[in-house]
Design a protein that fits this description.
alpha/beta, 9 strands, about 35% helix, about 25% strand, globular
Length: about 260
């Protein structure tokens, strides 16, 4: 695999075992991975393979039991304290009693930014996700896709260099999902952030990513890392090209191999 020059996330022999009432459950094992600045890295694998768990380890929401991991050269705990990442969950998780602008403002209020700084960031991030003009709306007044864009704006609001996205479009219909995939690529190009993206969709992983990390069933391990030769600017119809289909076939083969490994 190609090793990035400047690592935003660096994991070595990473493992995580959960202690449960039925005994220990090995969620991750021997994960070695370097994610470079400005990359768009997707994680794909069957349910329960540890994709989301790995994201949660980066975010210091879970603690590894083996190996090491750094985020921007720091421990995940230090990176969390320095607000080094934004996190977008599967559901938009917007507060229904707050307007869209006040939902985006929530992390800014928590970190104690001034009112003027909050307003500037709210304006900038809502503009980035094409929600200008919807500041005073409530979540229930927006479509599912617009709610998820508001969730992305909230994650972008404190301007972290790293964006962690856990299946943010999984519950949306295909037409909306395609549109948001296009918008996410545009957003990535404008902001040059590093993005770690969990998905179950092979076409989504191939369309969005500079690299695709294929994972095996539990205990989650990396079975393949695929560098994408696709250009940075990607119209949706690139999905019909031989280059795209070849990458998708390799991802599919990696997923099958992972299953046979178990």
């Amino acid at each position: 695999m190609t090793k990035p020059n400047a690592s935003v996330v660096s994991a070595s022999k990473l493992g995580l075992t959960f202690e449960t009432a039925d005994g220990p459950v090995r969620a991750l094992t021997d994960v070695d991975l370097e994610i470079g600045k400005g990359e768009f890295v997707s994680f794909i694998g069957p349910s329960g393979c540890g994709k989301t768990t790995f994201l949660r380890v980066i975010a210091d929401l879970e603690r590894p039991t083996d190996g090491t991991i750094t985020v921007n050269g720091m421990s995940p705990e230090q990176a969390r304290e320095k607000r080094a990442y934004g996190y977008v969950f599967q559901a938009a998780a917007l507060l229904p009693w707050r307007t869209i602008e006040r939902n985006v403002a929530l992390p800014l209020e928590i970190i104690g930014l001034s009112g003027s700084e909050q307003r500037e960031r709210i304006h900038r991030t809502l503009e980035l996700v094409n929600l200008s003009g919807f500041e005073k709306k409530y979540p229930w007044q927006l479509s599912g896709g617009m709610q998820q864009r508001a969730s992305i704006a909230r994650a972008l609001a404190f301007d972290a260099d790293l964006l962690l996205m856990d299946e943010p479009f999984g519950a949306l219909d295909e037409i909306v999902r395609d549109h948001l995939n296009e918008q996410l690529l545009e957003l990535w190009a404008r902001t040059e952030k590093t993005i770690c993206f969990v998905t179950h969709s092979i076409p989504e992983a191939v369309y969005l990513s500079t690299r695709i990390v294929v994972m095996s069933p539990r205990p989650g391990r990396v079975t393949d890392i695929i560098d994408s030769p696709l250009p940075k600017e990607r119209p949706l119809d690139i999905r019909e090209t031989p280059e795209f289909l070849a990458i998708a076939a390799r991802v599919r083969d990696g997923l099958r191999a992972g299953h046979s490994y178990e």
